[in-house]
Design goal:
The chain is 30% helix and 23% strand. The chain has four helices and ten strands, in the order E-H-E-E-E-E-E-E-E-H-H-E-E-H. It folds into two domains: 90 residues, no CATH class; 71 residues, no CATH class. It is an alpha+beta fold. Strand 9 and strand 10 form a beta hairpin. Helix 2 packs antiparallel against helix 3.
Length: 188
């Protein structure tokens, strides 16, 4: 399994997925992910279902930008041109929790990203400004994979992960207080 430092899993979902893989003998698995934006209550709504490679046999290697069963990180696709033995999990079974856009300093993330050379400084600056000044109802500026580099941000009705990161929880509370204060000013 190949995983980045900002990817998290629910331990119960992960256990169930491992059991299913062992029972069925699937050599390659993929599952989708939810990409959070700013906190654990907002996520990016892509015009496609994004995938990430799950658990796979060590018989297979990775390839850059090779075939995949759906939109997937081009740097870690599993080399399996015919998709033999590939299983794609349903979201209800397992979904990766991606914290890529939950950052204290989003500029630092974007400027150190392995794909940064594919984006203009102007686009990075625009994404940073939008992130730092974002308010409920605004879109997010994405650097790739979406029309006009814009994607809708949706608020979850119910949180879908029990994962808690203290600084993220504190930031969520600060942001909510700021939003409430701004609404109060608008009313007056």
């Amino acid at each position: 399994m190949n995983i980045d430092a900002d990817e998290f899993y629910d331990k119960d979902q992960f256990r169930v997925a491992k059991e299913m893989i062992n029972e069925n003998g699937w050599p390659i698995t993929y599952w989708s992910y939810v990409n959070y934006f700013r906190d654990l209550e907002h996520y990016l709504v892509y015009p496609f279902r994004p995938f990430v490679p799950g658990i796979h046999s060590t018989y297979f290697t990775y390839t850059f930008n090779g075939p995949a069963p759906g939109p997937t990180d081009p740097t870690r696709r599993i080399y399996n041109p015919l998709n033999i033995g590939t299983y794609i999990f349903e979201d209800e079974v397992i979904r990766m929790q991606h914290f890529a856009w939950i950052r204290k300093n989003i500029r630092k993330k974007l400027e150190n990203w392995s794909a940064k050379d594919h984006f203009t400084p102007d686009l990075i600056n625009k994404a940073v400004r939008q992130y730092e000044n974002w308010k409920e109802g605004d879109p997010a500026i994405m650097l790739f994979n979406v029309p006009e580099n814009s994607v809708f941000v949706r608020k979850l009705d119910v949180r879908i992960t029990g994962i808690q990161v203290p600084w993220v929880e504190e930031e969520m509370e600060r942001w909510k207080a700021k939003q409430d204060a701004n609404k109060e000013k608008e009313v007056k």
